[in-house]
């Protein structure tokens, strides 16, 4: 492998090592690295899994048990691993259908199979130039940079940093393959409510995503872009939500009269630490006072129906809507829909072919979706900068 200056883009392929934001040089990748969060697959796994999630924070098991009941409610099994198995198989099929002989290696941050295992398996097979797809679409520490730190940590821990290169697919928040499910879901929800006799002004659309600390949000995305309040994370979600509502209104004019807003869920930090608001359940409780009779919650921040969707939306938000006397619908996530799987392979082909920016698919025009992350983007102010692959240091 060509020697790489670690102060530019560590652990990168030669094409990405120079730090250009968009890589227009084709790369003959050996394999795809599907990088997930991980989840328990039985009651005995729950606390060890949560210890992994909160490692280094000194949280006692009795406090972890307060979160564990979400998993225990579903038999101690998070759906996320099964979803990633299905996604891996679907990606392999779509890659083969398009004539790409690329194995897909799957590894998680917090539970088996771990990223270390996936990278070592790839290296043992002679697949040393990998393109990573992280299972989160937006720019923030937890959804982008932390995965890049994971790659660097794993390469250092396995002593494969001089052998294996890992590039990362750009944030794909506004790729048409990702957003199609949300557009379809919103349209069907509004049509259903209208069919039940609810007037457009009586319907509320809530686009929901994972809350993150306000300090992290303000530092999300490239630093040289003025994202406004909430940084790139909030701006990207707002842009997708606005695009979805506009698209729905093009074929369903009544949708232009339906109010919508971006809300947050699943906060887990101490009460003293500011996180992005408003909370989805708090807003649902206010809707009768706004004259609403029905609410559709759109999990715009999520790829699949994992625990934050099943518990925080399908359980808690649904209960909040019932208490408020509201009709409630939760719209679908992309999951392994053919459009989403095809969209991921489109993103892979961008890097295989070195497609220029103007040849890449995006629906919002917001920008800030880079192949090589910019210096200092998505900082975690509490932990500082750690080594990270697929971006210019720090």
In short:
Helix content is 38%, strand content 11%. It has 394 residues and is α/β, with parallel strands linked by helices. The protein has two domains: 31-173 and 337-359, Rossmann fold; 176-330, Rossmann fold (3-Layer(aba) Sandwich).
What tags apply to this protein structure?
2 domains, four-stranded parallel β-sheet, alpha/beta, Rossmann fold, 8 strands, 38% helix, 394 residues, 12 helices
Reconstruct the topology from this structure.
Blueprint: E1 31-36, H1 46-53, H2 61-72, H3 80-97, E2 104-108, H4 115-124, E3 129-134, H5 141-157, E4 165-168, H6 176-195, E5 203-210, H7 214-218, H8 231-251, E6 260-265, H9 280-286, E7 294-298, H10 307-310, H11 312-323, E8 327-330, H12 338-353
Parallel strand pairs: 1-2, 1-3, 3-4, 5-6, 5-7, 7-8
Helix pairs in contact: 1-2, 3-12, 6-8, 6-12, 9-11
Specify the overall morphology. Answer: globular
Distance between the termini: 23 Å
What gyration radius follows from the Cα positions, in whole Å? 21 Å
From N to C, what is the helix and strand string? EHHHEHEHEHEHHEHEHHEH
Strand order of the largest sheet: 2-1-3-4
The CATH class of the largest domain, by name, is: Alpha Beta
**Mean pLDDT reading:** 96
CATH architectural category of the largest domain = 3-Layer(aba) Sandwich
Biggest sheet statistics: 4 strands, parallel
Describe this structure in words.
There is one protein chain. The protein is of the alpha/beta class and 394 residues long. It is built from twelve helices and eight strands. It has helices spanning 46-53, 61-72, 80-97, 115-124, 141-157, 176-195, 214-218, 231-251, 280-286, 307-310, 312-323, 338-353; strands at 31-36, 104-108, 129-134, 165-168, 203-210, 260-265, 294-298, 327-330. Strand 3 (129-134), helix 5 and strand 4 form a beta-alpha-beta unit. Helix 6 crosses helix 8 (231-251) and helix 9 (280-286) runs parallel beside helix 11. The mean pLDDT is 96.
């Amino acid at each position: 492998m060509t020697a790489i200056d670690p102060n530019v883009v560590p652990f990168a392929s030669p094409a990405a090592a120079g730090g250009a934001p968009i890589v227009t040089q084709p790369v003959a990748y050996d394999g795809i690295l599907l990088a997930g969060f991980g989840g328990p697959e039985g009651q005995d796994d729950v606390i060890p899994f949560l210890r992994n999630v909160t490692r280094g924070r000194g949280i006692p098991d009795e406090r972890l048990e307060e979160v564990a009941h979400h998993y225990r409610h579903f038999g101690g099994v998070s759906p996320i691993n099964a979803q990633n198995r299905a996604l891996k198989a679907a990606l392999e099929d779509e890659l083969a259908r398009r004539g790409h002989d690329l194995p897909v290696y799957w590894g998680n941050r917090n539970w088996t199979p771990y990223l270390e295992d996936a990278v070592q398996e790839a290296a043992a097979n002679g697949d040393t130039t990998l393109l990573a797809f992280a299972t989160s679409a937006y720019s923030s520490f937890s959804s982008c940079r932390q995965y890049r730190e994971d790659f660097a940590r794993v390469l250092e821990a396995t002593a494969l940093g001089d052998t294996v290169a890992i590039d990362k697919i750009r944030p794909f928040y506004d790729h048409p393959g990702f957003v199609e499910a949300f557009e379809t879901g919103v349209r069907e929800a509004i049509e259903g409510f209208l069919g039940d006799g609810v007037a457009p002004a009586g319907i509320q659309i809530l686009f929901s995503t994972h809350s993150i600390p306000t300090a992290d949000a303000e530092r999300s995305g490239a630093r040289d872009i003025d994202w406004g309040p909430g940084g790139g994370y909030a701006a990207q979600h707002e842009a997708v939500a606005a695009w979805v509502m506009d698209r729905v209104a093009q074929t369903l004019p009544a949708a232009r009269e339906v109010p919508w807003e971006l809300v947050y869920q699943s906060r887990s930090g101490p009460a003293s630490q500011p996180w992005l608001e408003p909370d989805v359940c708090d807003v649902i409780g206010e809707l009768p006072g706004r004259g609403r009779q029905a609410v559709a919650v759109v999990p715009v921040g999520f790829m699949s129906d994992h625990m934050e969707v099943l518990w925080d939306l399908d359980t808690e938000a649904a209960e909040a809507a019932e208490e408020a006397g509201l009709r409630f619908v939760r719209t679908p996530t992309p999951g392994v829909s053919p459009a989403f799987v095809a969209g991921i392979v489109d993103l892979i082909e961008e890097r295989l072919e070195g497609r220029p920016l103007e040849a890449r698919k995006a629906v919002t025009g917001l920008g800030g979706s880079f192949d090589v992350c910019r210096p200092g983007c998505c900082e975690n102010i509490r932990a500082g900068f750690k080594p990270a692959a697929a971006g210019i240091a720090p």
